[in-house]
TrEMBL record:
<keyword id="KW-1133">Transmembrane helix</keyword>
<dbReference type="GO" id="GO:0030425">
    <property type="term" value="C:dendrite"/>
</dbReference>
<feature type="transmembrane region" description="Helical">
    <location>
        <begin position="148"/>
        <end position="166"/>
    </location>
</feature>
<dbReference type="GO" id="GO:0045202">
    <property type="term" value="C:synapse"/>
</dbReference>
<feature type="domain" description="G-protein coupled receptors family 1 profile">
    <location>
        <begin position="1"/>
        <end position="164"/>
    </location>
</feature>
<dbReference type="InterPro" id="IPR001634">
    <property type="entry name" value="Adenosn_rcpt"/>
</dbReference>
<dbReference type="InterPro" id="IPR017452">
    <property type="entry name" value="GPCR_Rhodpsn_7TM"/>
</dbReference>
<keyword id="KW-1015">Disulfide bond</keyword>
<feature type="transmembrane region" description="Helical">
    <location>
        <begin position="113"/>
        <end position="136"/>
    </location>
</feature>
<feature type="transmembrane region" description="Helical">
    <location>
        <begin position="9"/>
        <end position="30"/>
    </location>
</feature>
<keyword id="KW-1003">Cell membrane</keyword>
<keyword id="KW-0325">Glycoprotein</keyword>
<protein>
    <submittedName>
        <fullName>Adenosine A3 receptor</fullName>
    </submittedName>
</protein>
<dbReference type="InterPro" id="IPR000276">
    <property type="entry name" value="GPCR_Rhodpsn"/>
</dbReference>
<keyword id="KW-0812">Transmembrane</keyword>
<dbReference type="GO" id="GO:0005886">
    <property type="term" value="C:plasma membrane"/>
</dbReference>
<dbReference type="GO" id="GO:0001609">
    <property type="term" value="F:G protein-coupled adenosine receptor activity"/>
</dbReference>
């Protein structure tokens, strides 16, 4: 009832717009432009991310404002989701009904999304921690650890589709169809799946 297609589109668009505006913050002046201008007259400038972006921006704004609060909020929300679903399943422990199937399906979906959040934290926290070390103790920053953190942050983008493919049957089937169409040049066959909005105490057609 709450998450309609229109509201979902609006939420996604707002997230992208907010991310775009957040990414423009360094262009408003929070950067190393002045320092680069002073160095350009004396020697060549190495084209590196840390030479352009200020580390206080990466720590105070990017990490403590744009990463930590949303991550903590998502962890609390998923904790509440698991608590509610477990509570509903315990109430139906002695009865086998469609309501139990519905909540078990929702629990599986919540676990998949929680896994995505967990992998995000594992992949992105190392580079943010290294940024904090670089800001507060520049001489304590090992170059190898920084490169590993950068690599893990890029790996996160490749892990999400794999998680969806292995944990969600509909996503896996759709991904296979897209690969067949793009690589094997085969037409996509329409596949019908049961909807996730199963109302408890109503019969579910298992032949869908």
């Amino acid at each position: 009832i709450i998450v309609t297609n229109r509201r979902a589109y609006v939420a996604v668009c707002l997230c992208w717009i907010l991310s775009f505006l957040t990414g423009l913050v360094p262009m408003t002046g929070w950067n190393n432009y002045d320092a680069l201008g002073n160095l350009s007259s004396s020697r060549e400038i190495v084209c590196e991310f840390t030479s352009v972006i200020r580390m206080d921006y990466m720590v105070y704004f990017n990490f403590f404002v744009c990463v930590v609060p949303p991550l903590l909020i998502m962890m609390c929300l998923y904790g509440e989701i698991f608590r509610v679903i477990r509570k509903q399943l315990n109430r139906r422990a002695e009865a086998t009904c469609d309501g139990e199937k519905y909540f078990r399906k929702e629990l599986k979906l919540a676990k998949s999304l929680a896994l995505v959040v967990f992998l995000f934290a594992v992949c992105w926290l190392p580079i943010h921690i290294m940024n904090c070390i670089t800001l507060f103790c520049p001489e304590c920053t090992p170059q190898f650890a920084s490169k590993v953190g950068i690599f893990m942050s890029h790996v996160n983008s490749a892990l999400n589709p794999l998680v969806y493919a292995f944990r969600m049957k509909q996503f896996r089937a759709t991904l296979i169809q897209i690969i067949r169409r793009c690589m094997a040049c085969k037409p996509i066959e329409a596949t019908v799946y049961p909807t996730s909005t199963v109302v408890p105490n109503e019969r579910v057609d298992e032949n869908l």
